[in-house]
Amino acid sequence: MTSENLKTNWAQFIPLVSVFFFWGFVAASNDILIPVFKKAFDLTQGQSQLVSVAFYVAYTVGSIIYMIISYLTKGDLINRMGYKNSLALGLTISALGTLLFYPAANSGSFSLMLSGLFIVALGFSLQQTVANPLAIALGPINTGSQRLNMAGGINNLGTTIGPLIVSFAIFGSITSGNTDISIESVKIPYLVLGAAFLLVAILLKFSSIPDRPAAVLEEVGETSNSRSSALKYPQLVLGMIGIFVYVGVEVATASNLPAYMESDLGFLTKDIAPYISLYWASLMIGRWTGAIEAFTDNMNRQKILRFLAPYLAFGVFLGVNAFMDHDLTPFYVYALIILVLIAADMASKGNPVRMLLIFSIMGILALLVGIMTTGMTSVYAFISVGLFCSTLWPCIFTLAISGLGKHTSQGSSFLIMMIMGGGIISWLQGYVADVTTIHVSYFVGVACFAYLAFYAWIVSKILKKQGIDFDKKVGGGH
User: Fold this and answer.
1) Which of 98, 104, 199, 449 could pair with 363 in a Cys bridge, judged by C-beta atoms 3.0 to 4.6 Å apart?
2) Helices marked H in 41-107
3) Is pLDDT above 60 for 177?
4) What b-and-e string marks burial along 301-315, b requiring 16 or more CB atoms within 10 Å of the CB?
């Protein structure tokens, strides 16, 4: 990015964030597919989590394919193709994956369903590799993290809407009383989604998004380029584990929630969607709160927006669910829990190290409350984990790539690869649930947050030795 790029290029940024919406829509919809597939195919809880495994491991496979092709052709694949072409290719791959839902639904094939999700996520892997640095490039570096938080907020608009639409497609109106599960009803929303992928691919191809944006990440210190590989930097290696467990706890908390609500609380599968929607809306609430600095540098306005933004995002959740004819009465109490997020955000003071530590501790507390209580108290405790996961991606990503210099792109690819934690940790928690109880299985999430708190503590020491002090610097995110 050149110095003359003093403002966010909204004309380019707005079409770009459409792909962030798709990632969220599909990822959260998986949480509705899991209990549906579990009943339709008579699966154990561990087997049902293969939905998450197929989806998130595809990110790793996609990253490996990308690196192998780049190595064999002796040049970066994305730089050669251009950013717009790469985005269009990723969307086309995802569209091909949605086509598999048609024969899978007609034949009642679980393995073919998993193959479709795998190919969809394979396309997402390429899109993620392109879109994250591109979002930073479309404006000044000092607001790069806010743009990624904003894009993350759009991502979570997709996670809020996705479960509701997919649940509606399978079960129909919430007032219909339909409890039948028809696998064939899954194919229509995913075919429509595939058509949307292709439409956006065409629009992005002819948009004004730059094909080869300028580099946007700072090189910190004289020693930033002195190491031979990104893997020589301990902040990256430890950060890769951080991304693995962060995506893991974020996804596993939600994907195991339907089984808990069904088995322990007696919920019907068709009635769970609004609660899954609230979990993913919680990430939107947190990310909208973290994006306010992109709109104004006035401190008084920021203070006002810090309270206004989360409740505006909560209002979006309520509005969407009201439109879907869901009863909103159970959700009003959540407005009080949002106050905890606001307090944690104020205490972090925009410092990614402090934010990672505080939000990880709050995540541990939320899970422990959920484990030690029953009924709706435990449900809201588990859902609130979404609030404390909301800003962890930008924190971990920023800390992990700080000081990498010319190895930043390589480091970013390694971090994207670790998104597979969403599948592995979900499966692990499902397995623990099978051998113990779903309630006890949430200790897996406690362990994940414990590592993230450790990473916040150790990475600060590592970076200070390299001359990087985040008490004076705030970086980018997801």
Assistant:
1) 449
2) 45-48, 50-72, 77-81, 83-99, 101-107
3) no
4) eeeebbeebbbebbe
d(CA 290, CA 305): 10
Q: How far apart are CA 68 and CA 62, in angstroms?
A: 10
Tell me the CA end-to-end span of the chain in Å, nearest whole number: 18
Nearest CA to 387 out of 439, 426, 335, 446 is that of 335
Question: Residues 6 or more apart from 294 whose CB is under 8 A from it?
Answer: 8, 143, 146, 147, 149, 150
Helices and strands counted in the chain (H then E): 21, 0
Q: Which runs of consecutive H residues, i.e. helices, occur in 206-333?
A: 234-255, 257-263, 273-290, 299-323
Which one is predicted more confidently, 144 or 35?
35
Half-sphere exposure of 430 (CA within 13 A, CB side): 29
Q: Which of 130, 128, 140 is nearest to 82 (CA)?
A: 130
Instruction: Report how far residue 281's alpha carbon sits from residue 237's, in angstroms, rounded to the nearest whole number.
Output: 30
Model confidence pTM above 0.70: yes
- The enclosing H or E element of 412 equals helix 408-417
Neighbours of 418 (CB within 10 A): 25
Instruction: Say what the pLDDT of residue 294 is.
Output: 61
Q: Check if the beta carbon of residue 460 is closer than 8 Å to that of residue 353.
A: yes
Centroid of chain to Cα 155: 7
Instruction: Tell me the C-alpha distance between 352 and 120, whole Å.
Output: 32
Q: Tens of pLDDT along 59-82? A: 989 989 988 888 888 777 777 888
Please check whether residue 433 is in contact with residue 43, taking contact to mean a CB–CB distance below 8 angstroms: no
CA distance 5 to 12: 13
Residue with tokens 């048609």: 102
Residues in the chain, total:
478
Decide: 305 and 265 in contact? Cβ < 8 Å. no
> How many CA atoms within 13 Å lie on the side-chain side of 35?
29
Where is pLDDT greater, at 467 or 444? 444
User: CA-CA-CA-CA torsion for 226, 230, 233, 237, nearest 10 degrees?
Assistant: 180
Give the model's pLDDT for residue 92: 95
Q: Which two tokens stand for residue 10?
A: 């909204």
Q: How far apart are CA 36 and CA 167, in angstroms?
A: 10
Is the pLDDT at 476 greater than 50, yes or no? no
> Which whole-number Å values give the CA distances from 158 to 80, 100, 232, 452, in the listed order?
31, 22, 37, 26
